[in-house]
Amino acid sequence: MKKIDSLNDILQNDFAITIGNFDGVHLGHQQIIQSIAQECKESNLKFVLITFNPHPLQILRPRENFLLNLEDEKYNLLSDLGIDFFYEIPFSRDLSTLSPEDFLNQYILENSHVKRIYMGHDFAFGANKKGDFSFVKRFCTNLSIVKLEEFKKVEKNISSTIIRNLIIEGDVEESEKLLGRPFFLRGTVVKGAERGRQIGFPTANINYGQIRITPKLGVYVTTVEVRGEEYHSITNVGLNPTFKDDSVKTVETNIFDFDDDIYGEVLTINFHKRLRDEKKFNGINELVEQITKDVVQAKIILKEEKK
């Protein structure tokens, strides 16, 4: 999958496009993209996936704790789905006010090699979202316009919004079914208060970017990826109420059978199951006793998952 800065970078090949945000690259996205890739191959068309950076809602209604994936993560998740070219349009308020006619003329129809447009069942673009399937069908009379159906898994709708809500509720098991993989957070390991090490459970704290969505506060069964290896772990998403009383959320992971210095390195945390709520303990001994139980329970769960 090659990154391009404009459709005019495609000089010789006829191609088809699809446009969307694709946050999370969930099973619905995967099935649709692979289907388009196959149709393009059969029609001897190159396949161009067009998305926006940043996510439009981050400009129009900025918020923290929202994105399922950062842009580089999304690119990596898309890279094995049969896409030939990846075109990321910079999103701004000016872009959001373009009429659908102007958007198509400036960004899509500038290259005469575009032959087919695949439209999501609910996707719309341009000012007031007037650029829906019906509009594109009327405006692009010389192109093939294909409407994509909504993807369902066992009669359940799949959408990025549904998955976000599941993660906010802490239901990482159900979100995994809709994503087709565990929900993950990736970030650089930063120095924390080192209280975990002092009580026998050293943790790796990650700086993951506040724009990324995080699961409901609590303790989770996780696996981590670091230095090309995977390890079992438990992760606390929370405010550390036993030691402090503030609103700074942290994500810290106790990696089993691992004690290397990984400050400054990138750590990926895969969330598998929620164990319990975060709680304030009466003292260190009570906290240590609970963490010991969490580790034992997590090891049992991860062992069962491997069978």
From TrEMBL:
Enzyme Commission (EC) number: 2.7.1.26, 2.7.7.2
**What is the similarity comment for this entry?**
Belongs to the ribF family.
- State the function annotated in the UniProt record: Catalyzes the phosphorylation of riboflavin to FMN followed by the adenylation of FMN to FAD.
Listed name of the protein: Riboflavin biosynthesis protein
Keywords assigned by UniProt, alphabetized: ATP-binding, FAD, Flavoprotein, FMN, Kinase, Multifunctional enzyme, Nucleotide-binding, Nucleotidyltransferase, Transferase
Q: Its catalytic activity? A: FMN + ATP + H(+) = FAD + diphosphate; riboflavin + ATP = FMN + ADP + H(+)
Q: In which pathway does it act?
A: Cofactor biosynthesis; FMN biosynthesis; FMN from riboflavin (ATP route): step 1/1; Cofactor biosynthesis; FAD biosynthesis; FAD from FMN: step 1/1
Entry's Gene Ontology BP terms: FAD biosynthetic process; FMN biosynthetic process; riboflavin biosynthetic process
Lipid biosynthesis among the record's keywords?
Answer: no
MF terms (GO), sorted A to Z? ATP binding; FMN adenylyltransferase activity; riboflavin kinase activity
